[in-house]
Automatic annotation (TrEMBL):
Involved in the biosynthesis of alanine. Catalyzes the transamination of pyruvate by glutamate, leading to the formation of L-alanine and 2-oxoglutarate. Is also able to catalyze the reverse reaction. Its cofactor is pyridoxal 5'-phosphate. It is an enzyme of class 2 (transferase). Pathway: Amino-acid biosynthesis; L-alanine biosynthesis. Residues 41-397 form the Aminotransferase class I/classII large domain. This is Glutamate-pyruvate aminotransferase AlaA. InterPro entries: Ala_Aminotransferase, Aminotransferase_I/II_large, PyrdxlP-dep_Trfase, PyrdxlP-dep_Trfase_major, PyrdxlP-dep_Trfase_small. Its EC number is 2.6.1.2. It comes from the Bacteria. The lineage of its organism: Bacteria, Pseudomonadati, Pseudomonadota, Gammaproteobacteria, Oceanospirillales. It comes from Oleiphilus messinensis. One of its GO terms (molecular function) is pyridoxal phosphate binding. Keywords: Aminotransferase, Pyridoxal phosphate, Transferase.
Length: 410
């Protein structure tokens, strides 16, 4: 007869032991507790445009509504045809050659496709080169897939561009892929073509898959141009990621895509594996797939927000100006995306624990940021600030942040 053991706790899988995803981590629990007590928290911690009045373009909303009744059933595991066709045509515009419908996967946001691609690619001990700082889902996804994340240095002194020598020095027999996030979260860097070409040279030499996370490719300031990495070579294997969450302000619709291009002949088996993973989750959220064709074609309303006098452009400038006026705070001005990544001078603010800094700021000023170490950065001197709120809110928040720093000690 089985004995009943009331003391047998259910633990989480050891697969999760080293998985770390700070953007929604411990400090957030405290923020939630404070909110439950009735406090208003200013959340500058997540790049979620909608709560800050960045509405999804009307035609996208209407497309989703209009097609709801058509979207009741499962669709093809890789996505509906018109959505994939639109992504394919977009590849032609971006100069990504020879992409066919079968090379395109629609997912529940880029997030799902990142995890799926790493699950499909990695065996225990396989290494993936990931930028530091990074968008931490990449590191978490590699770890969850029993791979080993190896962080390469992005150099703040050089506009946060990837340090090519550092990348080269970290390539081993086990390296399978290199992740490039461009425009970058959290630094806002947009990489010039020469840097991208050097990364491609390394990938070519060492037969690496390049994972290009380009979800911010249309959120560009100061006339800077974005180059799709996969447009620069046909003989290297690329997975390119993009979606509706940022440029189309539809993060809640959970819709993204992954494009396989370049040296596809090298990846037949891998692609079979990813096809299987796509089938295992049946398909991605169908209603929002109907918005992809409208989103990618024609008028791009994001341009109005990033051009001079656009809301995002102005908010970036205000946030940058105010932050860099604080004594001991410096920042590389972001050329893309939705974030500032300021540095606190270690002489003036010798921070031992940047998570504690973020916690203290939350408790004292009700402002929520993310600490630099949450982006797999070793030093404890950085913070990420989302510049989605309107300028008056940013002014208030940064003034309070400056006030907090005046007396802050650890
Ligand atoms: N990649 C980067 C660089 C991001 O910053 C984010 C979200 O912040 C994602 C991927 C996830 O996007 P999605 O909403 O499509 O899952």
């Amino acid at each position: 007869r089985a004995t009943i053991n009331f003391m047998r706790p259910l633990s989480k899988s050891s697969k999760l032991d080293n998985v770390c995803y700070e953007i929604r981590g411990e400090v957030l629990k405290e923020a939630r507790r404070l909110e439950e007590e009735g406090h208003r928290i200013l959340k500058l911690n997540i790049g979620n445009p909608a709560p800050f009045g960045f509405d999804v373009p009307e035609e996208i909303l209407q497309d989703v509504i209009h097609n709801l009744s058509e979207a009741q059933g499962y669709c093809d595991a890789k996505g509906i045809f018109p959505a994939r066709k639109a992504v394919m045509q977009n590849c032609q515009q971006l100069g990504i050659k020879s992409v066919e419908i079968e090379d395109i996967y629609i997912g529940n946001g880029v997030s799902e496709l990142i995890v799926m691609s790493m699950q499909g690619l990695l065996n225990a001990g396989d290494e993936v080169l990931i930028p530091s700082p990074d968008y931490p889902l990449w590191t978490a996804a590699v770890t969850l897939s029993s791979g080993t994340p190896v962080h390469y240095h992005c150099d703040e002194q050089s506009d946060w561009y990837p340090d090519i020598d550092d990348i080269r020095s970290k390539i081993t027999d086990k390296t399978k892929a290199i992740v490039v996030i461009n425009p970058n979260n959290p630094t806002g860097a947009v990489y010039p073509r020469e840097i991208l070409e050097q990364i491609i040279d390394l990938a070519r030499e060492h037969q690496l898959l390049i994972c290009a996370d380009e979800i911010y490719d249309r959120i560009l300031y100061d006339g800077v141009k974005h180059t799709a990495l996969a447009s620069l070579a046909d003989d290297v294997l690329f997975f390119t990621f993009n979606g509706l969450s940022k440029s189309y302000r539809a993060a809640g619709y959970r819709s993204g895509w992954m494009i396989v291009s370049g040296a596809k002949y090298r990846a037949r088996d891998l692609i079979e594996g990813i096809d299987m993973l796509a089938s295992m989750r049946l398909c991605s959220n169908v209603p929002s797939q109907f918005a992809i064709q409208t989103a990618l074609g024609g008028y791009q309303s994001i341009n109005d927000l990033v051009l001079p006098e656009g809301r995002l452009y102005e908010q970036r400038n205000v946030a940058y100006d105010l932050l860099t006026q604080i004594p001991g705070v410096t920042c590389v001005k972001p050329k893309g995306a939705l974030y500032l990544f300021p540095k606190l001078d270690p002489k003036r603010y010798p921070i031992q624990n940047d998570e504690k800094l973020v916690y203290d700021l939350l408790v004292q000023q009700r402002i929520l940021l993310v600490q630099g170490s949450g982006f797999n950065l070793k030093d404890k001197q950085h913070l990420r600030v989302v510049f989605l709120p309107r300028t008056d809110v940013l002014e208030d928040a940064i003034t309070r942040f400056a006030h907090f720093l005046e007396t802050y000690q650890q």
